[in-house]
Design a protein that fits this description.
By secondary structure, this protein is α/β, with parallel strands linked by helices. The protein has eleven helices and seven strands. InterPro entries: DNA_pol_III_delta_C, DNA_Rep/Repair_Clamp_Loader, P-loop_NTPase.
């Protein structure tokens, strides 16, 4: 199967990446941004197969031993780093030990061909210490290494020292997209964030906001709302938010607080939360598969 045939949509990103393959101008590090579950991982894996494919074509041939190994996840030069579940806890994180292991693996020459490719999946779980270690990997990469970092959520307030090391590609929803009025919710999120000193305090306030949204949507009296100064904005949000989504959003905020307690990066956690809220308001159910 031709590599491009499984990547419907995302034409600009696909053409850019496969064009780089054809012209042999593959960058050292890529950053894939966008909502969850829209194909970033699939694109990264297909691009990786193309880099490792000895055929030198614009897309991976999907027939050579290299492509078949990569498709089965057994190619020695394709390194996939995924979040680990902490012992005795539900929280996941990409740990500094994983980044150090990756650094050691990349320091060795390729087993086959001339390149190695590393993919960091679900990088919103990257801890601050792991992010600092990753920065060192990117600043001093071996010439045969290509790093692709998939992320859930939008690159809103990512650490600039790390972000500037990546060539960023944005992926958009293939469906009609988030519900109308999403800009109002994003504005409300940003305003709350600017008014508070810590991200955790902001999330606790947003839990109260979620509660107020449910109170208003239930038809209760406005006197029961805590954040009364936000009532006009909340009413507008409620007009365009499915009732079932509000409970899911509150759960998402609670989960994000748990990620912070597990030492996740605040910036990446906020990006992931914003993307998940957008999908929930659009009626898109979450899945654990990309």
């Amino acid at each position: 199967m031709n590599g491009s045939s499984v990547l419907l949509g995302h034409e600009r990103a696909r053409e850019f990446l496969f064009g780089a393959l054809a012209e042999k101008r593959v960058a050292q590090a890529y950053l894939f941004t966008g909502p969850a579950q829209i194909g970033k991982r699939l694109m990264a894996l297909t691009f990786a197969r193309g880099i490792l494919c000895p055929g030198g074509s614009k897309v991976p041939c999907e027939e050579c031993p290299s492509c078949r190994k990569a498709s089965r996840g057994v190619h020695p030069d394709l390194l996939l780093v995924e979040p680990q579940t902490d012992p005795g806890r539900d929280a996941k994180s990409l740990k500094i030990e994983q980044v150090r292991d990756l650094q050691r693996a990349l320091s060795l020459k390729a087993h086959e061909g001339t390149r190695k490719v590393a993919i960091l999946d679900d990088a919103e779980f990257l801890t601050e210490q792991a992010g600092n270690a990753l920065l060192k990997v990117i600043e001093e990469p071996p010439p045969w290494a290509v790093l692709s970092r998939g992320r859930v959520g939008w690159a809103l307030d990512m650490d600039m020292a790390l972000r500037e090391k990546f060539l960023s590609l944005a992926f958009l929803l293939l469906t009609p997209g988030p519900a109308p009025g999403n800009a109002g919710l994003q504005s409300l999120l940003q305003n709350f964030g600017k008014e508070r000193r810590t991200f955790e305090e902001f999330l606790r306030l947003f839990l109260l906001l979620s509660r107020d949204l449910m109170v208003l949507q239930s038809g209760a009296r406005e006197e029961q709302v805590v954040n009364r100064d936000k009532i006009p904005e909340m009413k507008q949000i409620n007009l365009q938010t499915p009732p079932a989504a509000l409970g899911r959003i509150a759960t998402m905020v609670s989960e994000t607080l748990g990620q912070l307690r597990a030492n996740a990066s605040p910036q990446l956690a906020l990006e992931a939360l914003a993307a998940r809220i957008s999908l929930a308001r659009a009626g898109v159910k979450e899945s654990h598969h990309v």
